[in-house]
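Posting this for the archive.
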Amino acid sequence: MKKIILIEPKAPGGHIFSRFALPRIGIFLLATMMKERGWKSEVIVEDLQAIEYDSLSDADLVGISTITPTAVNAYAIADRVRSMGIPVIMGGPHVTFLPEEALQHADFVVRGEGEIPLMRFIDAWEGDGDYRDVPNLSYRKKGSIVNNPARAFEKDLDQFPIADFSLIKDGKQLKILPIQTSRGCPYDCSFCSVTGMFGKKYRFRSTEHMLEELRRYRNAGKMIFFYDDHFAANRKRAKELLYAMMEEGLSFKWSTQVRADIANDDELLDLMKRSGCHTLFIGFESFNPASLKEMKKKQTTQDIIRAVEKIHSYGINIHGMFVHGFDNDTWSSVKMTVDYAKKMKLTSAQFLMLTPFPGSEFYEYVSDRIVLRDWSLYDAHHVVYKPLNFSLSQLQWAQIYSHVKFYSLFETLKKLFRKNWIAAGIAVYARIINRKWKKQNKDYMEMISAIPDGKRKVA
């Protein structure tokens, strides 16, 4: 029996949700498909377990999935695995957009959605080794890089099996189960690479296929995270799924990502609450109208305020995500955004750095302003490009200021006074993480302070 080991590398650094390991769903789905094909299949999630390289020695093939902030680590893992004489195939958003870079470390790269391409690749692997007809595949041939044409996005998501989380090496358990109901996003925010990876067309699994998976966890006592980029992009589909979950008596707690416009649908919010929705993760991004327009967010500051009030009225927690660093951002808009975030009494919040991720429209827009190209810094917690109205260090301090103010001792005590134990607990943990971040990034802060105009290129 041939063996494949699939690895999800960890990212350096930390943030307020670092303690909750939430691996991406794709790696488990591919591992399940390989298992069904007759291969021995294992998954290593480095956030849960260290990689023991001796245990990889019997693998016939190692797959590594990477996003931009894990790319440096992923390449180091790939180099070491290849030095053991084991072929490496890489996939994920980062290498989808930079396959030539990835092929300096891997034997093969699958761009975009990997299910059908991986199966076609294994057909060739087990056959005559001719990869010409493998869609989405990048590889070397006679010293040159070949990028095979990409196939259209899969419309029928029900054709894929239900992910088998028991494939984690050594029986490690996930505290939160990642389940994906859909792919793609009909919106196209300038700083996001989702549409480049999964397309603008919203595709979703059937309700029955979803129930088949969810029934497995009826008595598991697990939190479910619906790993969709926008769970309610098709509200009719979302309502149908939630109604079906309640009819089945599936009463677990769950969370997901949505847009602020979900507040326009009381029926959907009611269904969410009654079906066990615990927290909604919402990208509010900013309270600066000019910045919202710049990022093509298609929402106003009043939309945000109304959304928070309405969602809170249903007793659902909100994790707000904000982004600093757009060309229309200033210190005044940063302070305004933080003030509004506090007034809205969000359960938790993250203030992120606008980051030019490969594959996003923003990456091309600021290509001549990118100062730092160390991918390990592309975690939305480090400034890597020169913003218009800040120096690098000024924008970094804007993020630090935001977290300090939102998670101040006074704000934490107010959460305790309101008996919002979840928000208070997160605030205490966030204060600890923020202090650690500043200590761990002392050298980084000194480095960016030395390049106030952003003109000095640093590898």
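Confidence is low (pLDDT under 50) at residues 454-459. The radius of gyration is 22 Å.
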